Amino acid sequence: MPIHVLRNLGLAGLLAVTTAAHADPIQAQPASPATPPAASAIPAHGVTRFKIGSLEAAALFDGTITIANDGKTFGLGHSPAEVAAVLKTNGLRPDQLELGIQPLLVRSGARVLLFDTGAGDASFARGGHIQASLRAAGVGPAQVTDIFISHAHPDHVGGLLGSGGGLAFPNAAIHLSAPEWAAMRANKDQAALAAAIAPKVIAFAPGAAVLPGLVTAVPVNGHTPGHSAYEIASGPDRLLYIGDSAHHFVISVQKPEWTVEFDGDAPTAQASRRALLRRAADQNLRLYAVHFPYPGVGRVKAQGDGFVWIPETP
Predict the structure, then answer these.
(1) 134 vs 221: CA distance, rounded Å
(2) Where is the Metallo-beta-lactamase domain (predicted)?
């Protein structure tokens, strides 16, 4: 991932979670706290369907990112051997970390909602499959009515434009927080993207009810100037799309205070990450983690001084 872009987007704040607490009645499958389950197999068609109350949802496979365990990205201030020990304990390769890229699709009546857009043709990822996944889900790009951007890092906004530089989703309003939009417009590396999407952008105040009764923004600060998670509601049922509140399903969850290079303000991001995981564990929140093993739906529970990820069985 291009570190110069990530560093340009760093700012701080305090974690603010403004949504009401609702525990989804569907229980995640039990797992051994010491050994999180392995990643689910990625279907050839790139779509895993599930429900949020009465809403139809689907995990869309866009691609993956491989990051070397070299002391430069995850666990800064800790040796690669320390990171490797945690990975090995959980049955993972000790020399690298795998991140998924899975935007979320939600249908609500005439609205077709897309949460983040994947990496596009970014060189740091094996991505760019979101359009194929959408087609497999029975959705054409012109049918998407609303896009919710968690933050402006390239693995989340890379799919906003097509290969010719035009809007990939021509009829969609693009929602992101006002601080994130201001940072994106100020970033010279994203000038062309910002100019292209500007007519479609609807910036919101952090924590706003973006689509009242359906989508509420949840500020999770420290990663970027206006990083937002999103709570998606259907009656009493909730799903919290966490964006980059946590990147890796073992390291970020079991060691939430370990620094990751992608966070603009590491101390604030660490506090935000722990607070979100604590709330999720205490309230049994159902989560959608865009970078966890596909399809990224599950819960966390407390384990020692950290937490453990429990994926939901599709």
Answers:
(1) 30
(2) 100-291
On the question of a cis peptide bond just before residue 293, with omega within 30 degrees of 0, the verdict is: no
- Separation CA 189–CA 204 (nearest Å): 23
Judging by DSSP bridges, how do beta strands 146-148 and 111-115 pair with one another? parallel
| Cα dihedral 203/208/210/214 (nearest 10) | 160
Q: Which fold has domain 3-33+45-311?
A: Metallo-beta-lactamase; Chain A (3.60.15)
Token pair 């872009």 is found at 5
* Cα separation of the two ends of the chain: 30
Structure confidence at residue 268 as a pLDDT band (50, 70, 90): very high
Residue 136: its H or E element: helix 130-136
Name, in order, each residue with C-beta under 8 angstroms of 259's C-beta and a sequence gap of 6 or more: 75, 76, 77, 266, 270
Q: How many CB atoms lie within 10 A of CB 44?
A: 8
For residue 27, the model assigns a pLDDT of 31
Round to whole Å and give the CA distance between 313 and 243.
21
Are 128 and 117 a contacting pair, CB within 8 Å?
no
Give dist(CA 272, CA 264) in Å, integer: 13
Q: CA of 174: how far to CAs of 167, 179, 193, 198, 285, in Å?
A: 11, 14, 12, 9, 26
